[in-house]
Each structure stands twice: as C-alpha cells, then as structure tokens.
Amino acid sequence: MVKEKVGRSIHFPGIKPVAELVVRECGGLPLPIDNVARTFRKGRNVSLWRDALNNLRRWENTQGMDEVLEFLRFCYDNLDSDAKKVCFLYGALYPEEYDNYIDYLLECWRAEGFIPDADESIHDKNAFRDAHDKGHAILDDLINVSMLESSEKRKCVKMNKVFRDMTLKISSQIGSKFLAKPCEGLEELPNHEEWKQANRISSMDNELCNLPEALDCCDLLMLLLQRNKNLCIIPEFFFQSMYSLRVLDLHGTSIESLPSSSNLIELPNTDRKTLFVSLEEFSVIIDSSKQSRDKIVEAVTTEVASLEKLTSLQFCFPKVDCLEIFVTSPAWKKVSCLTFQFAVGDHASTCFQILKSFDYPSYNRQTLVNSEGVNPVISKVLMETHAFALINHKGASRLSDFGIENMDNMLVCLLERCDEIETNINGDVITKGVLECLEELLINNVQKLESIWQILR
C-alpha cells in the first residue's frame, strides 16, 4: 500500500527504511497507513519521514480503540492549514456515513467563515465562486488523505464512524463545543446546560415536536434541525439570544414561518426592505400544491430581482412569465457572475435532482417541465445554460426549435416524455458546428423520435 500511495519517492535515499518503521508504528492499520503514505507521497526529504515517525511514537503506549483514535489524531495534526482542520471537524455534526451534498457543505463552510472570500476589489469577477473553488480545493485535499470519503452518490462525501468519533474527541479538546445528536430519536432538545455551552448544535433527523421557549446561547454559530418532520412551530423568542448564528437549517420540517420577533428577519435600526441587499446566495422552492403559489412566486421573484450582489440562485418558477421578471432585471445583466439552477413549469420540487445527478457542481442548469411552445425567454436563458432538461414538453418537434445558436455552452441535455419531438437537430439550416461542447445526451421515452440529426435535402 505504501509503495502504491507514495510512488517514486519511496526509492529516494534513506526513505524506504524509515517508511517501513512508520508502517510498523501504524500497527498494520490500513487507514493510518493510507493517510501517512498519501501525506508524504511527494516528500523526498527523509527528515519529513523521521518527524512523522517521531510523532507516531508519541502514542506507542495507548491501547485498543484509544490507539486507533490517537493514530487518527496524528492524521489530523498533520493537516497543513487551520482551514482544513476546522472543515474536517465539521463532519462530526452529521451522522456517521452520512451522504453530505458537496455544494451544501461548501455553503456551510463559507457561511461560517472557514473559506476566505476573494478580495472585495474583484467582486465583479465573482468572489463567491472564487471562495467556492477554494472550498473544493480543501475538500479534495481531505479526500486525498482519506479523512473524508467520496460517496457512492454523486456529488456527496461522507465521514466514517472511526473518524467521526475521533473528531468529536478532538473538538472537545480544542474548545470547539459541538452538541452533535443527529439520528438519535430525540423528541426534545438536550438539557439546558448542554446547549448553553455549545457553539454548534446538530439535532437533525430526530423526532422533535417542540422547541424551548428560548435558548440562552449567544455563542451559537450553527443550528441543524432539518428533517424533524413533526416540528411545526418556533416559539416567539426562540432566536432572541442567537446573535452569532450563521447557519440555520430547517428544511424537511413542518415549519411554515419564523417568529415575527426573530432577529433573523429584522435587525435593530435596519430597514427590512434593505436587509438582504448584500445577499449572494438564495434558494427558493415552493410547494406546487399551494393554491396561492403563483402570486407568492411572482412577489418573491420581484424581490429577488432587486438583489444587486446575487451570485447563486436556485428557483422554481411556476410559469415562464415569472422567469421573465428575473431575466429582464438588473440582476440578470450580471449573469456572467451568476450561477443558477432554474426549474420552469408545473412540477414537483424534486425536479432539481434530475440534473444534480451529473458531476457539474457549479454549472448553470435549466429544467423545463410540463410546458408548451418555444418562448424567447427560455432561449435567452439557454444561452447561459450548461445542463438542460426538457421534460413532458408540448409544441416543439425539434430541440433546435429553441435556437441551436443558443446551445453553444451546453454540456448535458436530457429529453424525457416529449411526445412531439421527432428529431433533435434540423440539419438543413445549419451552416457551422453545433453542440460542440455537448458531453452527454440522454433520451428517455420520446416515442416519436426518428433521428438525432435530420437532413431533408
């Protein structure tokens, strides 16, 4: 394993004998061996290997599981930046072997301030995306040294049980006060003394029905309550002391509104209308079964369109008219700095998952569902789209009806249940190369499809 991970460096003078001693100190445990080998795969200096050996020998008197945990502590101590260390510790807030969406994780890291933004002077070049890229670099490094694992699910990572146990132990030692009780069947939050001392609380995937009237936790930075499906109401003064809160996740609960007194909604001496002017990332998914949905979305779209610094938007538009409100706004004029995921038409909120399954984490996606005809607004957005899905669409016999000239950036295309589509491209009107960037074309249940490229000459 060591030879495979380290590569040619193992043959440099003096390294192989020390590497053999390192393996012996690891007790034959694959995970520490793999981690150490990956860490020093570019190390041609025998001094680095000797230092690693000395660090490992510090734990030679530990036994059993403590021995494993201390070896893993060595892996943690060997991370070369504080950012990587704190991002790694973050994984303990989620259940063991939990498939965590990479984009979600990076959003949390950035909100907590673990990933420094790009310099404000280059905001127009998309500081948000720059920070996102830095987060991916940290994540890749943690995966490369086996401290996080790529999941079988695309775009997900996970932490195994042993590393999670070690992470909770380290967090208590260095003052990062985690209260991590996910997936434990809890019907109420832990006792007052536990959450009063915590700066991050995870009670996701439990059976919570009620919350305390107030939480006395002014140092709380993160609160995860997602997927407590029986949780319906937040007490009026629940958030009152949470002045430092940076991450709050309530999705998958039955909560429909935040308390009016919440400092998450209104800040002292702040005009509520200007509160979100600096908002950079926004996700809006509204249940399509709501009768007042169209009016809600239209109003929200108008507000979102006024966000001057928006760089990432996920939005379900019930009809093209709502999309047009945004596309004709000043926010769309800065589209070169915007990453978007749009779903247009009468659909379920799960439609975003259709294109999320592809390995294009920060690319623009547009899904058109249960719609009719060819609207120029769709074609306009298509010019900036990397992944496009056309589902159960009427009134178009060719994909190229949306304007083949608008598809120069398209990497992925999905056609599904489009009963009137007979061909993808009408070759008679093509005078130059088309779909030159296309990497994946998926066609599912398109019954009248006769050809991909049609030439009638």
Characterization of the model:
The chain has helices spanning 2-6, 15-25, 30-39, 46-57, 64-77, 82-89, 102-112, 127-144, 161-174, 192-197, 293-304, 320-327, 330-333, 353-356, 376-382; strands at 100-101, 149-150, 156-158, 178-180, 200-202, 222-224, 247-249, 281-284, 312-317, 339-345, 365-369, 387-391, 412-416, 423-426, 440-444, 451-454. It is α/β, with parallel strands linked by helices. It has a seven-stranded parallel β-sheet, with helices on one face. Helix 6 (82-89) crosses helix 8 and helix 12 (320-327) crosses helix 15 (376-382). The protein is globular. The termini are far apart. Mean pLDDT is 77; it is low at 118-125 and 265-278.
In short:
The chain has 457 residues and is an alpha/beta fold. 32% of the residues lie in helices and 14% in strands.
Q: Which key phrases capture this entry?
A:
single chain, 457 residues, alpha/beta, four-stranded parallel β-sheet
- Strand percent estimate: 5-15%
Rg of Cα set? 26 Å
- Major beta sheet summary: 7 strands, parallel
- Structural shape: globular
> How many angstroms separate the termini?
61 Å
**Class inferred from helices and paired strands:** alpha/beta
Q: Quickly count the helices.
A: 15
Number of strands: 16
Strands of the widest sheet, in order across it, are 8-9-10-11-12-13-15
The overall pLDDT average reads 77
Which segments are poorly predicted (pLDDT under 50) over 5 or more consecutive residues?
A: 118-125, 265-278
The helical percent reads: 25-40%
